Amino acid sequence: MDHVLHTTLELALPVEDVFSFFAEAGNLQRITPPELGFEILTPQPVEMRRGTLLEYRLSLFGVPFRWRTEIAAWDPPHGFIDVQLSGPYAVWEHTHAFAPTEAGTLIDDQVRYRLPLSPLGDAAYPLVRRQLARIFAYRQRAVTAALLG
User: What is the DSSP string of 83-133?
Assistant: First the structure.
């Protein structure tokens, strides 16, 4: 069964500036909670475009693993989509959308994910949902701090 996480954040910055921050792969480490031990293994700098492959190492619920994603769509400065090729989820598709507003830019994150070993794995959904909500709340605070100081 697929699940969806959806978050939005509005920042008083032009869409091009916000997109540029997210287009820099190294910033992903800056906006990930430190307890996840997130590390980008792909040599930096990474040229972000459709087809770019990214490999990470991190720990979730105390279990270390590698995560490999591909940029499946790239549409500067409007958005991009990354999909998991290998990692902890049966499906992970993260759509990043950036839209200009009167106040600046609306950042819209939508993640469609499926837990492994479904339907048995779905028993962990309440725990995973809370963990993802916490990770994305941290991400919003970190993005705000990084871009607005």
Answer: EEEESSSSEEEEEEEEEE-SSSEEEEEEEEEE-TTTTGGGGGHHHHHHHHH
Contact 7, 135 (CB under 8 A): no
Sign of the torsion angle spanned by Cα atoms 143, 138, 119, 108: negative
Is the distance from CB of 48 to CB of 81 less than 8 angstroms? Answer: no
pLDDT band (50, 70, 90) for residue 21: very high
Give the chain's end-to-end CA distance (angstroms, integer): 39
**Mean residue pLDDT across the chain:** 96
In the chain, the largest separation of any two C-alpha atoms, in whole Å, equals 46
Model confidence pLDDT, tens digit, residues 24-71:
999 999 999 999 999 999 999 999 999 999 999 999 878 899 999 999
Identity at 124, one-letter amino acid code: A
